[in-house]
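Predict the holo structure. Ligand: heme C.
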Amino acid sequence: MTTRPTPPLSRWQRLRRYLRACSFIEREVWDRPTRFSHWALAAMLVAALFTGWFDPSWQLDRHLLIGGMIAGLLLFRLVWGLFGSEFSRFTNFMPTSKALRADVASLLQDRLKLPTPGISPANGLISLMLWLILIALMFSGLMAYGGEEHLGPFASLVSFKAGETAQRIHAFLSLVLIALAGLHYWIVSRESRLTRIPLIRGMITGCKPLDPELPRDSERSAHAVWAMLLGMVLMFAIDHASKTLGQLPMDGWRPLHYPTIYQGRCGSCHWTIHPSLMPEERWRELLHHLGDHFGQRVSLTGQEAITISSFVLVHASEDWDTEAAHRFRKYADETVKGISDHPVWRKLHARMDPNLFATPPVNKPNNCPVCHHDALSGRFDRHAIHLPRPAGQLPTP
Ligand code: HEC
Ligand code: HEC
């Protein structure tokens, strides 16, 4: 009988062997829910960073959807940190300062080190910081959304200015998140080298080497029922709170009723321009010069003039807390005649194809409602931006 040489392993077989179940000298340290939430969170964070930094602002919905999923995963992880199995619990992530110092020192040296049964002290601290940053990102994001767009649970609680600040904090925190995640990964790979244990595989299969000297009686097991109960209570509480908050009356925005005379006299040549798009002073000036209104002559009777001027002056931009009102409130100088000449308007639309504004169905830049479907409400929300297809271009299948 001759022994045939064993054929080399295929790539697939090597992968299977890498991801095999725990061997007899290993044990499952990371339970399935922990592994799942770890990788799902990692994937969602990459998606959130991409949509946050690179998506055009009118596709904010995608970023919000991912944010919602991250919130769900975080909630789950929070509950599992209290009721999960031993090594998933937060108490295991909080290092003593002595352990932390020793761990950091060992990471910086090139000597073999003993693995910790659960997370290493340094990475435990980083993980706690990552969760806190994520919670802060969640809040700052919702505050930015509430302040700038007047939508979401904080719509009525946060002013536009505070929303802008929240947005800046949100962006800054996302950079901190990247830095911390990088540090997390660096520690994992360093630790893998120094302990000779593939830790990334450990987070996929859950296995880490068994330490026979470690007493295991004190290890707590998971309490799935308690976790589920707490999770459900928290979910209902959050849902209820956000709905209640979202229904509070809003300070910075109100629905506007356009007087018939305004619609008839001013809405015949262009759309019924929302009064919040110009400050009071500019409206006054415009109404004084209706005899030469952008090259047109507009004449009003005394009664019409009174109705129209009181309507636009009462609802001028000073009286609103919306994004559009804030952006166009400060007029640059006298040469700025129309809203679309405003430097801020140009900046907001700088990334767009200029042809889109000059061709049907838009025809001119101040035809705001063609793209901003909520222009008549003065909100100019990102959700309501729908770019029209230029005339003559066939829909792509
Ligand atoms: C005869 C047609 C006509 C009428 C009636 C008219 N407008 Fe205009 N309006 C124009 C034109 C033309 C412009 C220049 C911008 C454009 O091409 O749309 C303009 C621009 C404006 C602008 C600047 C908007 C921007 O986007 O730059 C405001 C504000 C405005 N009109 C207010 C009014 C008000 C208020 C009334 C009613 C009292 C009124 N218009 C009636 C023709 C008209
Ligand atoms: C051809 C389509 C189009 C027209 C016409 C148009 N816009 Fe826009 N507008 C956009 C798009 C697209 C964006 C988002 C640009 C971006 O984020 O890069 C935008 C952004 C904005 C924003 C910021 C919204 C936010 O939440 O970030 C405001 C405010 C705004 N436009 C006001 C106006 C006003 C006022 C007019 C009319 C005078 C107008 N736009 C005309 C397409 C248009």
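The pocket of heme C (ligand 2) is lined by residues 56-58, 277, 323-324, 327, 339-340, 348-349, 351-352, 356-357, 362, 365-368, 370-372, 380, 382, 385, 387 (CB under 6 Å). The longest strand covers residues 26-28.
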